[in-house]
User: What shape does this take?
Amino acid sequence: MLYASQVLQPSSSHSKWQRDYMLICSSPDLIVHPLMRQAKHATKDETAESIAAEIEKLLERLHAVVIGPGLGRDSLMQETAAKVISIVRKRKMPLVLDADGLFLVQNHPEVIKGYASAVLTPNVMEFKRLCDAVKLDPDQVQGGKDKVCAELARKLEGVTIIQKGRQDVISNGRDTMIVDTEGGLKRTGGQGDVLTGCLVTLLAWKKLYSEGAWKYHLWVNVLTIDTISP
Amino acid sequence: MKTLQRVKKMIPPLSPEMHKGMAGRIGVIGGSEEYFPIQSYTDFSYTGAPFYSCMSAMLFGADLGHVICEPGAATVVKS
Assistant: This one.
């Protein structure tokens, strides 16, 4: 594990002011585990099973996971991801699938079928390919694109789909929501990754909240929360 | 609107009773070594993508963010 910021932080937080200031201004640091292997770099002992077993040890300490950003379409990476998804399902952890994680679902829809804690965030192209994977013809569904999204969620047996587009459609087959707030028109690389990051945090909070990890009424300042929103 | 109210309730409070990791420990699995196959530009993967995902999770309010990636991507994600 690599913690770079730990060296810096204690030395630079002498005063309380500085500490509070750092809380707001310092960028948080993430921990990197180079556990995954691409087929060309893997040694003989490194199979999808052995890598997934290593990752399982780490998953015990996590609340929610994203699978997919920059995963690539390498055979071993995809195979490992499939194994990790099965572990995640066994542990009933919330899961967000994006980018090349969706490529895996396109090829093997069964890995995610019926897992209600999973959220898929396809863009237009990925949505089309997902429809093909479950043999759903969008033109044959009556109604708007929200109906298509709901139908796809039903075909995947209760998985939540967030279809990104001009209007985002969110559906788990039972409930469907349309987000028609106007967004920016610039499309840059990494925007989808920011979405998955925010999503997975909310999913982790949901899990912790339902487990009763904190006593909400004790500490929360409801007034401040209410002033944030209009 | 009801959904938003419910989401608000899930946001963890800032309380002295909480310790590090109680407001969410996140894992991001992805991040392969950068490669650009010349024949198709749609096929390349973003090495830095897990960085954006994990960093936005932490900026959003999660306590700890773990990136699980290829050794080739680790240096890119870390720096």
